[in-house]
Design a protein that fits this description.
α14 packs across α19. α3 links the parallel β9 and β10. The strands form 3 sheets. The protein has an 11-stranded mixed β-sheet, sandwiched between helices. It has a 3-stranded mixed β-sheet with strand order 1-2-5, with no helix packed on it. It contains 19 helices and 16 strands. Helices cover 34% and strands 16% of the residues. The radius of gyration is 23 Å and the shape is globular. The chain has 2 domains: 338 residues, Rossmann fold, CATH 3.40.50.1820; 186 residues, Alpha/Beta hydrolase fold, catalytic domain (Rossmann fold, 3-Layer(aba) Sandwich). It is an alpha/beta fold. The longest helix is centred in the last third of the chain and has 26 residues.
């Protein structure tokens, strides 16, 4: 069965929506928003508005400034096509490649909106993309919001500044505009976008009092930041974190202005970048020279394969936007008390470092090392790369998700934990026999492979390689996500029951190829209990 037939079979709801909305459909819908009137497009009962500005272009004197108000326009703004994604060195992605037509620019603070034609007071979901804070954008077809819209959700996706445009500090810059936060401009963009949603989404038929933020990887880490930032409180009402960690920030506990042992401040990293660009002094002239650098010079070759740690510091603790690590905030119950859905993939991202079995076991107490080997190498393979990959994935993504679920559920807040273990047959075959097979030592659902299932776009991503089970899993996952956005509970008609997280039962929803969506006690409890002792020691 080809991709078109699969989409036709498993999107019957979309067909019903088309029939019911046909009378309300217009060719070019218009909406009045902050700044003026925008005109989108409409097809099959879904209205789409692309590239709506939510802040002034952060260029020239506004480079490394908190986002400023939208510049009003005259006439009708054409919101029929993608606007540029944020400036970056491109990174090849099989899951969510950027649209070449969108292009890249420092002028990139735009929002996309999808809705049902005639929408009225529908729940809102706001997507924060991943990409290690250095890559990504809202143009990929994997992030198409039309299938969420078909399920009765207004879907919003937002761009935010990346790399040195989004996360940068410099001593002279820290003294400029003392009333503004510094360093985490990408997070400031996310907050500005959420404020735009609060002010404007009702005009699109969305409910500003029923907003769910969700993101994956760096986007999931951003959701942790929004949950724990005093500046984001009241801007959303539910949250979904996909492979976003949950203990330390994904990019370490760097400070904006203060050096830590082995971790220079973001300001000192900024000084190092200035020197690399031939800017030696640290006065206002130097700051002006930094702002005058061409955008491609600031972006450089920085991407997820080349993080350039000497001249790029990433998100940092600034005391205003980011005030503490997620773990500190959750233990102290200082986060937003909103329903949460959180999880990770079964072959998720980690930072393997050990080269020998002894190095892999070194972080664990000697009394449990035999138990560690049994948990992480149940088949007694002796494969150090595989053992370390599993340990690294658990340490960075899987155990922190459980920690977050436990900490927030203990406060009486509804939490739903999941593990995404589904691998498309075409992807599984490539993992075994494809050109990158030898590089993928930890077979399973790799980092970010859950995203097109959550958006129900996997058939569009895989094309003719998609099979019926791919479409079924995508419709199932996106239905749980949409239900959660509507009510704070993912359960709904026709779906297996997903119980709220309880520490004693430790039940999660496992999405697998063999059994579909299945609620079960965490099968990795022993692994994660062992990793928990290691994580607690590191904190």
């Amino acid at each position: 069965m080809g991709s078109k037939q699969i989409r036709a079979v498993f999107c019957m709801a979309l067909g019903a929506l088309v029939a019911s909305a046909a009378s309300a459909e217009t060719s070019r819908p218009e909406v009045a928003v902050t700044g003026g009137v925008v005109q989108g497009t409409s097809s099959n009962g879904i209205d789409v508005f692309k590239g709506i500005p939510f802040a002034a272009p952060p260029v020239g004197a506004l480079r490394w400034r908190a986002p400023q108000p939208v510049m009003p326009w005259t006439g009708v703004y054409d919101a029929s096509h993608d606007r540029p994604d944020c400036m970056q060195a491109r990174f090849p992605s099989e899951i969510a490649p950027l649209s070449p037509a969108a292009g890249l620019s420092e002028d990139c603070l735009y929002i996309n909106v999808w809705r049902q034609a005639g929408a009225k007071k529908l729940p809102v979901m706001v997507w924060i993309h991943g990409g290690g804070f250095v890559n990504g954008g809202i143009s990929p077809k994997a992030f198409d919001g039309r299938y969420f819209a078909a399920k009765g959700v207004v879907l919003v996706s937002l761009n935010y500044r990346l790399g040195r445009f989004g996360f940068f500090a410099f001593p002279t810059l820290s003294k400029e505009n003392p009333g503004e936060p510094k360093g985490n401009y990408g997070y400031m963009d996310q907050i500005a976008a959420l404020k735009w949603v609060k002010a404007n989404i009702a005009a699109f038929g969305g409910d500003p009092d029923n907003v769910t933020i969700f993101g994956e990887s760096a986007g999931g880490g951003s959701v942790h930041t929004m949950l724990t930032s005093p500046q984001a409180q009241g801007l959303f009402h539910k949250a979904i974190i996909q492979s976003g960690g949950g203990r330390a920030p994904l990019m370490d506990n760097r400070q904006v202005s203060r050096d830590l042992p082995g971790l220079p401040s973001l300001e000192n990293v900024g000084v190092a970048f200035a020197k690399s660009a031939g800017i030696e002094n640290g006065d206002a002239t130097a700051l002006a020279a930094l702002r005058a650098l061409p955008a491609d010079k600031v972006a450089g070759a920085l991407n997820m394969l080349n993080m350039e740690p000497e001249t790029y510091g990433g998100p940092s603790i600034d005391g205003t936007i980011v005030v503490a690590s997620p773990q500190e905030s959750y233990v102290a119950a200082r986060q937003a008390k909103v329903p949460l859905m959180i999880g990770a993939n079964n072959a998720d991202l980690g930072r393997p470092a050990a080269k020998t079995l002894e190095e892999a076991l070194a972080p664990f107490d000697s009394s449990v090392r035999e138990q560690v080997l049994k948990a992480y190498d149940p088949d007694n393979t002796g494969n150090v790369r595989l053992i370390e990959a599993r340990m690294a994935s658990d340490l960075m993504m899987v155990e922190p998700a459980r920690f977050t679920a436990r900490a927030i559920a203990a406060q009486g807040v509804p939490v739903f934990e999941y593990r995404f273990s589904y691998v498309a047959p075409a992807v599984a075959a490539a993992q075994e026999n494809g050109p990158r097979a030898k590089l993928i030592v930890n077979k399973g659902a790799q980092h970010a492979t859950d995203v097109p299932y959550a958006f129900d776009t996997i058939v569009d991503v895989l094309g003719d390689k998609a099979v019926q089970n791919d479409a079924i899993m995508a419709y199932t996952l996106s239905s749980y996500w949409a239900n959660f956005a509507k009510t704070g509970n993912p359960n709904g008609a026709g779906l297996p029951n997903w119980p709220a997280y309880d520490d004693k039962a430790d039940v999660l929803m496992n999405f697998t190829a063999k059994n579909g969506a299945t609620a079960m006690p965490d099968p990795w409890k022993v692994r994660l209990d062992l990793t928990e002792t290691r994580a607690d020691q590191a904190e």
